[in-house]
From TrEMBL:
It holds the Pfam family Acyl-CoA_dh_1. The keyword Flavoprotein applies. GO terms for molecular function: acyl-CoA dehydrogenase activity. InterPro entries: AcylCo_DH-like_C, AcylCo_DH/oxidase_C. Residues 118-239 form the Acyl-CoA dehydrogenase/oxidase C-terminal domain. The keyword Cytoplasm does not apply. This is Acyl-CoA dehydrogenase domain-containing protein [Frankia sp. EAN1pec]. Keywords: FAD, Flavoprotein, Oxidoreductase. Gene3D superfamilies: Butyryl-CoA Dehydrogenase, subunit A, domain 3 (1.20.140.10).
Length: 263
């Protein structure tokens, strides 16, 4: 698909995500051909859809489709997914909220599940986390430019600028890791990309909360929704902390580190 077609598709997806979420968005994405795109152009489809889910703050149970297709099954169903701490969850294709991981996502704990292909799911979650991180950075940047203190925008204060800059560096580094993994895909590359994206999103949550100050804690402001979403997504298919330890143990057992990107 050429650049202009991708731009038009992104605009259509963004409009759908602005209008609806949950099961209704799941149906809208199916009508837009999401599952066909997942078969025909998986890398572009995953990057586009999941990045926009993060940026718009909406949600849909389409992670199921990515994992199911990677396992050789038809999309459209659900599959148990590993969660942080050795637990398992199912992301239902309904609007009935779960109770274990907040009240805005239909995620429910299940006793256990079978082994699932993790690389494709981590690829999707990494883009979702990056989109969420960039949305938080955008909120904090806008606030820093508009909020004045001592007669000038707080964006002019060094402490604020450092937090925003550190957030941007974390997000850009995580995206570079993800693009390198997509160029030469393997399990370790996507493990590291998911870990980097999770850490970047958590960095964004921490710094942007500080930039926004007290308003960022309120239910009326959008930030808390992105923070909660990042915390849930980080735990899915292994948290940044768990994956970092797993990668370290794997490299120690091999006694060497593979070249993950050609510079």
């Amino acid at each position: 698909m050429d650049a202009e077609s991708l731009r038009m598709l992104a605009d259509a997806l963004r409009k759908s995500m602005a209008a609806t979420s949950g099961a209704a968005l799941d149906a809208a994405l199916a009508d837009l051909g999401w599952r066909d795109m997942l078969d025909e152009m998986p890398e572009d489809a995953i990057a586009l859809v999941f990045r926009l889910l993060g940026e718009t703050g909406t949600h849909a149970p389409v992670l199921n489709d990515v994992v199911l297709r990677a396992a050789g099954h038809d999309a459209g169903g659900t599959i148990p997914l590993p969660y942080v701490g050795g637990s398992w969850v199912v992301w239902e294709r309904t609007d009935k909220p779960g109770t274990a991981l907040g009240d805005d996502l239909p995620i429910h704990r299940v006793p256990e599940g079978n082994s699932v292909p993790l690389a494709a799911g981590r690829h999707a979650l990494a883009w979702w986390l990056l989109g969420s991180g960039r949305a938080m950075l955008s909120l904090a940047r806008r606030h820093a430019l508009e909020r004045t203190q001592f007669g000038r925008p707080i964006a002019s204060f060094q402490a604020i600028r450092h937090r925003l800059a550190e957030t941007l560096v974390a997000l850009e580094g995580a995206e570079a890791t993800l693009l390198a993994a997509a160029a030469e895909p393997d399990d370790l590359s996507f493990l590291l990309a998911k870990a980097a994206a999770g850490q970047a999103a958590l960095t964004a949550a921490r710094h942007c909360q500080q930039v926004l100050g007290g308003i960022g804690f309120t239910a009326e402001h959008q930030l808390h929704r992105y923070v909660k979403r990042a915390l849930v997504l980080d735990g899915m298919l292994g948290s940044a902390r768990e994956l970092t330890r797993e990668a370290g143990a794997l490299l120690r057992s091999k006694g060497s580190a593979p070249r993950l990107a050609h510079l």
